[in-house]
Structure to design on (489 residues):
């Protein structure tokens, strides 16, 4: 049977009654659990039960409440992110408060199968638990980059990808993680937006960055042929891969190869809590610039709370096609220049442009920015008369337009205070990734499928948002202690 949608009040009453029954007046001794109790008490997850109704049949015994299943998964991540689901159920048996806060009576806990059924059949109803088929051509190890950086995609890759996506921009390609994003956006992100925790949701500043996720020490695969038995090695026949969406990539911070995913994350850059917005798992070898393009198009199609006004990216994303893509989406790119080029750019006049986008006068001097002419939509540059490059009374002038070169002449000039103020928030994406990997032990998941990794990532993201709700309203929330336990007064 379909699960009954229980209101959050019903859940709260259940928790009160169960705490009374199992802890009585000694609930006051649960001091170290108060933050967890308050987070569960306040976070209304009943939306998941309503959302997943269609995934359950009308027949058979009534299903476990999806809100409680999800809440239990969050309590697991809040308290014991390093263990597996089986060990988590044992942990709930030993620690009744974890069961109660999940929404379960401690003597009536769901089994491991129920947890997997909830994720595999309801949250991710696709037959395939990965994005790519398990049967693949054998792949070579990825290349090591130069200067400790991940190898750049081949020239033209980003341009071709952007061109392809621009032709297909109107086509919405559903992704198996969409139900999770839908729940996340409507029940978690929107709450954070109302609390003012993600900046202005109607004009978001988004920071994007990728981070390695190690899933296994070696890439495991089985042959589909018997070449090896016949003494033929290194053949190119298909193999069956246990983790088809993963491959080998270069981890520049640990300076080693790894097997797994490249997790590309969008973060609310103006969020004081560095709150995550949109996750995407890519193969380990994928470069930030390629991942960004896919994420930008997907997020643009899915984010319904407003629009993305600014995108803050590091120099690995400094490719002309990315500026054009974001500009077409109505998003202003804030991207650091990748100073690979040392030579000036010719303009067809006697003025050259430095690799940083500053006009150079015929005498080889950097021209000075002289304000923005809004009516003409162009920036004015000048050289003083003392330079001698011009006989004009006010010296030599030159104009640059963003539309001529978005990369070199961004709407907000890179040397302005406005740029510095906006761009310094880019590191919020690094803090988000660090929090997910260190505090919530993302890589301890030991999962094999993209489905389970996606579930874990969204679970951790939800925890990060609920943590921020608590941190930003601690005083008010702490007043609720007396409602939950009158003896706590
Ligand atoms: Zn073979
Ligand atoms: Zn000059």
């Amino acid at each position: 049977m379909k699960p009954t949608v229980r209101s959050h009040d019903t859940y709260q009453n259940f928790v009160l009654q169960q705490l009374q029954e199992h802890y009585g007046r000694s609930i006051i001794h649960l001091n170290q659990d108060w933050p967890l109790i308050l987070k569960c008490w306040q976070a209304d997850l009943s939306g998941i039960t309503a959302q997943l109704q269609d995934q359950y049949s009308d027949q058979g015994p009534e299903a476990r409440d999806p809100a409680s299943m999800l809440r239990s998964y969050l309590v697991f991540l809040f308290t014991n992110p390093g263990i597996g689901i089986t060990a988590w159920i044992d942990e709930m048996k030993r620690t009744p408060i974890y069961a109660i806060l999940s929404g379960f009576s401690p003597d009536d806990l769901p089994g491991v199968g129920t947890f997997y059924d909830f994720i595999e059949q309801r949250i991710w109803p696709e037959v395939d638990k990965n994005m790519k088929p398990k049967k693949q051509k054998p792949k070579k190890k990825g290349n090591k980059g130069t200067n400790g950086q991940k190898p750049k995609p081949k020239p033209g890759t980003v341009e071709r990808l952007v061109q392809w996506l621009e032709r297909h921009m109107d086509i919405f390609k559903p992704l198996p993680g969409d139900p999770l994003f839908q729940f996340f956006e409507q029940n978690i992100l929107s709450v954070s937006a109302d609390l003012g925790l993600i900046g202005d949701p109607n004009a978001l500043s988004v920071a994007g960055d990728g981070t390695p996720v190690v899933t296994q020490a070696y890439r495991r695969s089985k042959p589909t042929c018997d070449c090896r038995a016949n003494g033929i090695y290194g053949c190119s026949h298909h193999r069956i891969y246990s983790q088809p969406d993963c491959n080998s990539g270069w981890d520049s911070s640990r300076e080693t190869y790894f097997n797994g995913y490249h997790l590309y994350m969008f973060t609310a850059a103006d969020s004081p809590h560095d709150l995550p917005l949109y996750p995407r798992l890519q193969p380990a070898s994928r470069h930030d610039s390629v991942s960004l393009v896919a994420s930008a198009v997907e997020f643009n199609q899915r984010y319904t709370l407003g629009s993305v006004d600014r995108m803050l990216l590091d120099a690995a994303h400094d490719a002309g096609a990315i500026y054009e893509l974001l500009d077409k989406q109505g998003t202003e790119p804030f991207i650091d220049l990748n100073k690979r080029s040392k030579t000036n750019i010719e303009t067809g006049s006697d003025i050259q442009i430095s690799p940083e986008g500053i006009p150079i006068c015929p005498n080889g001097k950097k021209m000075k920015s002289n304000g923005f002419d809004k009516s003409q939509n162009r920036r004015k540059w000048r050289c003083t008369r003392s330079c001698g490059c011009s006989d004009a009374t006010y010296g030599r002038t030159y104009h640059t337009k963003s539309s001529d070169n978005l990369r070199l002449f961004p709407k907000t000039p890179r040397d302005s205070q406005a740029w510095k103020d906006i761009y310094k928030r880019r590191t919020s994406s690094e803090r988000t990734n660090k929090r997910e990997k260190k505090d919530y032990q993302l890589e301890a998941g030991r999962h094999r499928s993209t489905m389970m990794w996606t579930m874990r990532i969204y679970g951790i993201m939800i925890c990060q948002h609920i943590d921020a709700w608590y941190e930003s309203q601690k005083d008010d929330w702490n007043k609720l202690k007396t409602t939950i336990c009158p003896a706590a007064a």
Notes: The two ends are 42 Å apart (CA to CA). Residues 120 and 140 are 31 Å apart (CA to CA). The chain is about 35% helix and 15% strand. The chain has a mean pLDDT of 91.
